[in-house]
């Protein structure tokens, strides 16, 4: 949510909008804004009488607008919060009523609507009117290539120092579940001593991610054809497939080698163009260049075929019934031997 900082700052300074309509695929930013509205708009005494929280599956837009028009007890302002609004149906009649309310919101109510996990239809009149008044706030997912930067910023906000590549490690293993990432970082903050840097040992101890044996390091070892390290990681991860799901590994490696293939087709163009087309941080282009030297285009294509083959086997398609740990070792071995004399596994 691009305007989240301004929203939070204005709430703290009691500069409030009559309507906040949050929508989008990323729930984390909405939760942060909702928490601020719940905590900072009314005093604890005022909340008892003038703060109402309802859920989409239990209410309607007509009921919500009726609540917003009720005069608050003991004067002042009232806060009406609608959570899980994506579960509400909106009839044509309610859409018209909502549009009228947006045009003339009541002065004593702050109406907050959280429409999670998807965007609202931008063609609707009330949506256009909300946008026109700057009361519509889109919560956009953080793109994969932006995730490590986002994590590093959160670490900085918490006043923590880190060892190199920790944000990349967390991004690789925790994915783009921002709520989980935020919770894990807050837990780490509580257990860390003042001035202690966040390193691989702490991450492994408190989150369960090994700094040496994870999909990020496997990808790195395969990308540089470090056979000894790649096989060591494969055997280690194979002993704990529950903590290292094969489908997660396959997905990450598929994305990685697809980007190597894309890099081959873009070679010779400016770095900014290559990074933008690939959707990666320019910082990582040197890694892709190095891997592209180890894997010519035809070899990269063969690796992608191997990954598809392993995906099929892992899902039990065909006459395959091989444990995931064995499939992982087989996959790594085959990738490392692409371009060499054909061998049977």
Automatic annotation (TrEMBL):
| Keywords from the named record | DNA replication, DNA-directed DNA polymerase, Nucleotidyltransferase, Transferase
Q: What is its EC number?
A: 2.7.7.7
Q: Which cellular components does GO assign to this protein?
A: DNA polymerase III complex
Where is the DNA polymerase III delta subunit-like C-terminal domain positioned along the sequence? 214-315
Enumerate the catalysed reactions: DNA(n) + a 2'-deoxyribonucleoside 5'-triphosphate = DNA(n+1) + diphosphate
The biological process GO terms on file are: DNA-templated DNA replication
Q: What class of enzyme is it?
A: transferase
- DNA polymerase III delta N-terminal domain ranges (all copies): 20-134
Superkingdom to which the source organism belongs? Bacteria
Q: Name one Pfam family in it.
A: DNA_pol3_delta_C
Q: Which family does it belong to?
A: Belongs to the DNA polymerase HolA subunit family.
Q: What is this protein called?
A: DNA polymerase III subunit delta
Taxonomic source organism: Elizabethkingia argenteiflava
């Amino acid at each position: 949510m691009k305007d989240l900082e301004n929203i939070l700052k204005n709430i703290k300074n009691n500069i409030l909008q009559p309507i906040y309509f949050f929508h989008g695929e990323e729930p984390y930013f909405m939760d942060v804004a909702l928490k601020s509205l719940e905590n900072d708009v009314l005093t604890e005494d005022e909340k008892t009488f003038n703060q109402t929280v309802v859920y989409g599956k239990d209410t309607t837009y007509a009921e919500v607008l009726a609540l917003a028009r009720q005069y608050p007890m003991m004067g002042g302002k009232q806060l009406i919060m609608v959570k899980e609004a994506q579960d509400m149906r909106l009839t044509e009649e309610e859409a018209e009523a909502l549009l009228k309310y947006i045009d003339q919101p009541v002065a004593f109510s702050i109406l907050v609507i959280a429409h999670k996990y998807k965007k609202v239809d931008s063609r609707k009149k009330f949506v256009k009117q909300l946008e026109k008044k700057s009361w519509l706030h889109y919560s956009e997912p953080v793109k994969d290539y932006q995730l490590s930067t986002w994590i590093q910023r959160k670490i900085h906000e918490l006043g923590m120092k880190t060892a190199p590549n920790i944000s990349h490690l967390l991004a690789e293993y925790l994915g783009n579940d921002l709520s989980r990432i935020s919770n894990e970082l807050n837990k780490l903050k509580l257990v860390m001593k003042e001035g202690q840097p966040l390193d691989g040992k702490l991450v492994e101890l408190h989150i369960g991610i090994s700094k040496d044996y994870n999909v990020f390091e496997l990808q790195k070892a395969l990308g540089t054809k470090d056979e000894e390290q790649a096989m060591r990681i494969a055997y280690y991860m194979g002993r704990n497939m529950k903590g290292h799901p094969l489908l997660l590994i396959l997905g990450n490696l598929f994305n990685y080698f697809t980007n190597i293939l894309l890099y081959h087709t873009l070679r010779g163009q400016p770095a900014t163009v290559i990074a933008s087309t690939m959707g990666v941080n320019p910082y990582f282009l040197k890694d892709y260049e190095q891997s592209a030297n180890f894997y010519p285009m035809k070899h990269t294509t063969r690796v992608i075929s191997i990954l598809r083959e392993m995906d099929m086997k892992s899902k039990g398609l065909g006459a395959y019934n091989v444990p995931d740990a064995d499939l992982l070792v087989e996959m790594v071995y085959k990738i490392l031997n692409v371009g060499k004399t054909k061998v049977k596994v």
